[in-house]
Automatic annotation (TrEMBL):
It is found in: Mitochondrion. SUPFAM superfamilies: Nucleotidylyl transferase. Keywords: Aminoacyl-tRNA synthetase, ATP-binding, Ligase, Nucleotide-binding, Protein biosynthesis. This is tryptophan--tRNA ligase. The keyword Nucleotide-binding applies. It comes from the Eukaryota. GO terms for cellular component: mitochondrion. InterPro entries: aa-tRNA-synth_I_CS, aa-tRNA-synth_Ic, Rossmann-like_a/b/a_fold, Trp-tRNA-ligase, Trp-tRNA_synthetase. GO terms for biological process: tryptophanyl-tRNA aminoacylation. The lineage of its organism: Eukaryota, Metazoa, Chordata, Craniata, Vertebrata. The gene is WARS2. PROSITE patterns: AA_TRNA_LIGASE_I.
Length: 332
């Protein structure tokens, strides 16, 4: 079902094969034939290899295949934990530069800042923020009648709530919201380089665990050299027993576009220490042009602000009729 919906939405069979099944949606009629991609990223901290391979890279492909695509810099979500206002403000511009450098094209996607779109006061603190977070995420998605949401595996529980709320609303007020479907890539859970049982995360206190897109080649090489694997020196792929090495193989395949089999074939004769260097080099090569483009874009803050301003206006236009209809249905 999920594949069927996505093919319909994007009209591209070949592309969709790159995705795992995702979370299947019930066959809710797509009101007014709207098929829409929506996703979001927090502006706190520089995106890492997990954000890139689990989400951003697929966003770049999706904007080429689908005609209605929105990406939100979810600054409201980021204030569920304390933020320095000046740092947050700069981080919003920085992540705009990162997304554009990764290939998000403002002519093809609506790139916007979440807080500029929402007019209600949503300031949250501490625990309340953490409780209301998934509801805010559901609102993000449903506000645009989004049909598909490309995310990493860690967002699947939040997606369940969004789906549940859409279904409840439809049951009470009639079929209105498409029940949104998650799109997961083969890299839906990139693991930490220090603890391959955990996901790679921005907030990991161990700086060696996470490779950021702006890391220098030396930093990337050091992080991979120090990556935790196991005591077997051969390079094999078995995610259930050899988490660390398999994470390397997954990353290697993803950044080079090779299959797992090709990667394993190429690594015959290498021990894991040598293999880590090969993977690091592939990641360095992948990130080099992105890193250069980030530097270039960060010099032009005016352009970054303009992109967000234009994106916000477009997002407002899309959300307006949905809000109006919801109010009418509810009886406001
Ligand atoms: N180790 C990893 N492996 C694979 N994918 C990963 C990894 N780490 C992160 N991701 C994915 O990166 C995207 C952005 O992450 P955020 O934590 O900012 O993502 C978040 O904090 C969201 N709650 C932001 C959000 C707010 N509203 C939304 C509406 C739709 C979709 C997303 C949102 C995500 O897709 C995330 O799954």
């Amino acid at each position: 079902m999920a594949l069927h919906l996505v093919r319909k939405a994007c009209g591209c069979r070949r592309f969709i094969r790159a995705f795992h099944g995702g979370i299947s949606a019930d066959p809710v009629p797509q009101n007014n034939g709207i098929h829409r991609i929506f996703s979001g990223i927090q502006p706190t901290g520089i995106p890492h290899l997990g954000n890139y391979l689990g989400a951003i890279e697929s966003w770049v492909s999706l904007q080429e295949k689908c005609s209605s695509v929105l990406f939100s810099i979810v600054d409201l979500h980021s204030i569920t934990v304390p933020q320095d206002p000046a740092v947050l403000h700069q981080s919003i511009l920085d992540i705009t530069a990162v997304l554009l450098a990764c290939g998000i094209n403002p002519e093809k996607s609506i790139l916007f800042q979440q807080s500029q779109r929402k007019n209600a006061s949503l300031k949250q603190e501490g625990t309340v923020g953490l409780f209301t977070y998934p509801v805010l995420q559901a609102a993000d998605i449903l506000l645009y009648k989004s049909t598909h949401v490309p995310v990493g595996e860690d967002q699947v529980t939040h997606m369940e709530l969004a789906r549940d709320l859409a279904q409840r609303f439809n049951k009470k007020y009639g079929e209105f919201f498409p029940v949104p479907t998650s799109l997961l890539t083969t890299m839906k859970r990139v693991k930490s380089l220090r603890d391959p049982s955990a996901k790679m995360s921005k907030s990991d206190p161990d700086k060696l665990a996470t490779v950021r897109v702006t890391d220098s080649p030396e930093e990337i090489m050091m992080k991979f050299r120090k990556a935790v694997t196991d005591f077997t020196s051969e390079v094999t792929y078995d995610p259930s027993t050899r988490l660390g090495v398999s994470n390397m193989v997954d990353i290697h395949a993803a950044v080079t576009g090779l299959t797992i089999e090709e990667v394993i074939c190429q690594s015959v004769g290498l021990d894991t220490a040598q293999y880590k260097v090969v993977v690091a080099e592939a990641v360095i090569q992948k990130f080099a042009p992105i890193k250069n483009e980030i530097e270039r874009l960060k010099m032009d803050e005016g352009y970054l602000r303009k992109v967000l301003q234009v994106g916000t206006e477009k997002a407002k236009e899309l959300a307006k009729p949905v809000c109006q209809e919801v109010k009418k249905l509810v009886g406001f």
